[in-house]
UniProtKB/TrEMBL annotation:
Protein name: Uncharacterized protein
Organism domain of life: Bacteria
Amino acid sequence: MPAPANRVVVDPHSLRRLITAMADLRETAQAQARLLSAHVDATRIAGDTPARLRAAHAWADQDITMLRRRLALAEAADPGTTGPLPPAALRGVPDLYDTAEQARAAGRSLADRLLRPDPDRRDRSRLADLAAALSGRAADPDFVTGFYDRLGPSALAGLLHQVLGAREPGAARHGEEIIGRTLASYSRLRRLDASWLGRFNSRRRDDQVETSLLGPLLRHGRFASALLARLGELLFGTGDGSLRDVGLQAGPGGPAARGAAGIRGAGGAGDAGGDRLSREAFGSALLRAIAADPELAPTFSTRHLPQLLHASRAQSADVPAGLRPAGGWRAPELETARTELVAAAGGAEARLARPGAARQFVAQLVDVVAGAGPSEVSPRMRAAYGEVLHAWRDDLYAAVVSPLPPDPAALDAPGLGREPRQWAALLRESLRGGASAPLLAADAVAVGAGIDQRAWEQTRGYNGPGAAHYPASPRALAYHQANEVTTFFGTALSETAERVLREHATRQEEHRLRTAVMIDILAEVAKSIDFTSVVRTLTNAARGLTVEIVEDRVRRATAHLPTAGSQAVLADLRAGLRAIPGWQSRYRASVADMWRHRDGDPLRPVVVQLPGGGTRHYTGDPRADGFVTGPANDFTGPGGEPMDVARMNREQRTAYAAWLASPAIVANNDRLPAVLTAPPADVVPGWAPGWARSAPAGKVPPG
C-alpha cells in the first residue's frame, strides 16, 4: 500500500550499515585512484580512469554527507526510544538542506532575526515566523542546534517572556509547545550545564535561573536527564550554591510590565494556587518530568527520598494546617507530583531501564519506612507505596519464604537483602491508605498460588506406581512457604486494622468518619481473599479502589457508621493465621542433621517427570543434582557439609537455597512435621505405621 506523500519510513539500523559500506567503498576508490595515478605511464589504461575514480569518490563523499543527515533526522524522529531504533516515520515538510551545516546556518539565521533590535515592536510577524519555522523543523537536530546556539540562554528567557505573555491564549499555547519540543531536543544535543543555566534569565546575569519559565515547557518533550537532575538539585537546594533560583523576574532589565503581568496570571506572583508560572508550578512540572524519565527517576529519588517523605508527612491530617510548609519543594501543591515520582522510581519501567538503581531505591524505601516506624503520610503517598510493592511483589515475598537469613549488602539477594519485618512495615503503611489493599491482597494470593503450582510442576509424578515411601512430601516445604505468604499478608492486614481501631478509640470527633471507613475497606479486602483461588480473589477485588473513591466514602459516611461487623471479620482472619517464627533456621538445622547422617541413613532418590517428557532423578547430593557446579558456588565445607551461611558468597548462597528446596532433601526430611508444626501435606498412602494413621471419629487405630 503506498505511503502518504509527506511520510518516509527509514530503518536507522539499515541506513547506518549503508553509510558504513559507502564509506568503505569511498576509501577504496580514493586508494585505487592514487595507485593508478602513480602508475598511469607504466600501464595501458585509459587516461581518464583515475579522474573517474576521483569523481566517484567525490560523489560518494557528497552522498554520505546527505545520508548522515537523513540518519540524524531519523534518529530524532522518535526521541523516546532507547536501544536499537525501529523504523522511523519522518513527517512534515521535505528536507530543505543537503548538509548538517546548511541546516545549522538556517537555524542561526532565524535566531539572528529574533536578536535584531526592534524597540518599537514593528516586526510583529517575528513570533509567528518563529513558530512556523520551528514547527516545521522541530525534528531537525541540526536546525535546532543552530537556532539555540545562536540565540543563547539570556535571549531565550526574553523570548519566553514574550511568548508566554502573548495576549492571545492560543498563540501562547502554540508557542509554548513548539519551544518546549525543540528545547527538549536541544538539551539532548548540547550539555546545558551550570554556566548555561546561570545565564537563563532576562537580566543578563550569570548566576540566576528563571526556573518558572521552564515549567510550562517541561511537559512538551523529553528533556535531557542531566538537565532535569541539575534543576532538581536547584529545587531541593542541594546544588553547589553557584546558582540562585529567582523564579520569575520583572522590573528593570526584565520583561515589559505588560508582559510580566500577562504571564503571571490573575493570581499574581504570590498566588501559588492560580499561577501556572509560580515556583510551585515549576516544581510540580519538574518532578513529573523526572518521574517520566525511567533512567533518572530511581537515582534522583534515592538521593532525595528523605525529603520526599518528610514533605508528605508534613501534609498529613495530623499536622495542623497552620504548621504545614507553604512553599518550595515542601509545598502541598507538589504532593501529587512527589507521589508520582516515588511510584515511578520503583515502577516497572524504571526496573527495566535501570535495574540496579531501581533496586537501590526500593531497598532504601524499605529501610526508611521501617526505620521511621508508624508515621502519617498522605493517602496518595500510601498509594504510591502500594504501586512499588506491586511491582516488586516477588522480591517482597522472596524475603518471606527464603530459607536463608537476609544479606543486607546484596541488593540482588532474595528480598533485596531486607528482612521480612522491614517489608512488613512498608506493607502496613500502604494498607493504611486503603486504596492499594485490594491489589496487594491479590498479589499475595497470586504469589502463594504460584509457589504451589511450581512445586507441582517440579515434582510431578513423584508418587506414581512403584514410587518409594518418603518421610515427607517433596512439596511440603512449598506448601509451608505458600502458607507463610498468606500468613504474612494476613498479619499485616489485621495489624493495620487493629492500629486503625486503636486510633479510632482515641481520635477526636472529626477523625471518626475516616477511621470507620478505613476499617470497612480493610474488612472488605479480607472478605475478598480466597487463598485457594487466585481467580476468585481477583474477581472479588476486581472493583478496585482509588484515593478519590476512599475520600468520597469518607465524605459520605455518617458519624454512626458501625464497625462491629468489620471487627468480627478481622478477628476471624487473625484466628485463621498460622505464623511460625524462626522456621528458616530450624529447617536449615534439620537438613544439616539429615545430611550429616546420610551414610547410616541413606536418602531415597526422588524421580519426577519433566514437562517435555522424560524424568529427572534427585539424589540429594548437591553435586550429582547439579546445584554445585564448581568452586565458585560450592557451599560445602571440608567434611562435605554446608558451611556457615555467613561465610558464603552470593553464588554459594544461591546454590545452597536451591539445594535446600530440592525434592530429595525435602522428601527425606523426617523432621518437617516438627519444624513446620504441621503434618506432611501430601504423602504416599500407607507410609506411616498403623498407630500413626488417622482413624475415623470414634475408632481407635489397630495395633
